[in-house]
Design goal:
The structure is a single chain. This protein is α+β, with helices and mostly antiparallel strands and about 475 residues long. The chain folds into two domains: about 130 residues, Nucleic acid-binding proteins (OB fold (Dihydrolipoamide Acetyltransferase, E2P)); about 260 residues, 2-Layer Sandwich (BirA Bifunctional Protein, domain 2), CATH 3.30.930. Helices cover about 35% and strands about 25% of the residues. The chain has 15 helices and 20 strands. Helix 7 packs across helix 9, helix 10 crosses helix 12 and helix 13 runs antiparallel to helix 14. It binds one RNA strand of 77 nucleotides through helix 1, strand 1, strand 2, strand 3 and helix 5.
Amino acid sequence: MSDLDLRKIRVEKLEQLKKENIDPYPNIYKATHEAKTVTDNFSDLENKKVKVAGRLMLMRMQGKAGFCHIKDSTGMIQIYVRLDFVGEEKLKLFKTLDMGDIIGVEGEVFKTRTEEITIKVLDFQLLSKSLLPLPEKWHGLSDIEARYRQRYLDLIMNDDIKESFKIRSRAVQFMRNFLQEKGFLEVETPMMQSVYGGAYAEPFMTHHNALDMDLYLRIAPELYLKRLIVGGFGKVFELNRNFRNEGISTRHNPEFTMLELYQAYADYNDMMEICEDLICSLVKEVKGSLKIDYQDVTLDFKRPWKRITFLDAVKEYCGVDFSKIEKTPDVKKAAEKAGVKVSAKMTKWEIINEVFEEKVEENLIQPTFILDYPKELSPLAKGKPGNSELVERFEPYIAGREVGNAFSELNDPVEQKLRFEEQVKKRKEGNMEAHPMDHDFVTALEYGMPPTGGLGIGVDRIIMILVNTASIRDTILFPQLRRKDDK
RNA sequence: GGGCCGCUAGCUCAAUUGGUUAGAGCAACGGACUCUUAAUCCGUAGGUUCGGGGUUCGAUUCCCUGGCGGCUCACCA
């Protein structure tokens, strides 16, 4: 039977209901209890009247009586409908109901012979007629594409995905509370920017008609948050969406959630402390332990996490000590010898970074801080004293993936301007991910920004670990998909 | 964007080397059934096999092309 036929039958039922003056979509129903509160408080509620509302998920009718399960936001509960209790009219009406219909039931709480907590229905009301059949009750909805495109069906049928999004909500809430308790002020800065910056990425472009001006969706809030530090806020954070116009993968969605925080009179060591504290507290809160299973490994978040410099990490996993190699051609030779492909126009630090990505990242399973990155690749970070080529920057890695980025913020306006100019030069050479010049940001720095530490954490990637999924799509309710024409 | 894999009834899945009229369970419809648990039993109906083209006496199956998805590589930091 095609879905149109199935729908037609239900539409006819709908018409019939209207003929009988039954509103299939009444405005309100006041339930007194949720499914879980009934099952959790049976001893108090036994033989008492309750009103519960939910979606019909299972029906076992046997002529003049029947058991069904309804599901509300808290879970499932069994209901028992019987001719003796509801009368002939209502039983007839009940039999016309379909799985997926949303009903409100009023009745007494009892236990069946098999000890299942059940509501003996004395009266019920249809609250919303469902016109389309639900997926199969046993296997549910497993088609991955359908689960993303019709997430509502996924949520109705698959309790585990619903649980994942509850965890996500709790985690985000936890991060906000954690930071607010530490004195950080949550702020909101522009998502539509005329100059974008704060990360290496291509932006989405849009246009404001009244101003007749192109705008970019932000790739990061960084430069605005630092303006706020200039303005005198001591601790700020923003937890919201970023947009990057790049490939989609199990680890990338075009819009994703980022936490960025900035603290005046702090440096990257302070950020490391906050990062460790935040993530460990979060893991403990959500998972109840600092040791958790993720895919096929066990992650141990016990503090302190491993700390190793960028160059030492390359040395450890690739066997080459690039700190001892000065000239670009020699760096290139060493990289190629290590089996890393490099192109002719790459600079020394781009090559070493390539080696890091190829050889090191996949090994960083346990929570690890990689410290002291190349200055050339970190145009917003402050230099490391005593080394002209490195900056005070770290990235936390978990399960082989970069989950954040932090540094002692560059607050020297003259140097910042030079760094931007280097970026602009790279752009002209064809690197479209390089930063554009942001004159106003430099101006802000010229008024003076205190020494500041900043930290960014990829929220979706942290959630992936908490809900043990290999795909970022399982942490985003409506992941981006290619448009599919209906009909 | 490249490579590999997938797409069959509303859902979950079958269909022999290319061979009758594409099957089954659930859902639906009709009937029986007043403590069921994926309720059971009897019966009925339901298909653009992702779209288009080709090869063939014959295509769900083979070829070409397009669509969508998954994994992966690239881009991404």
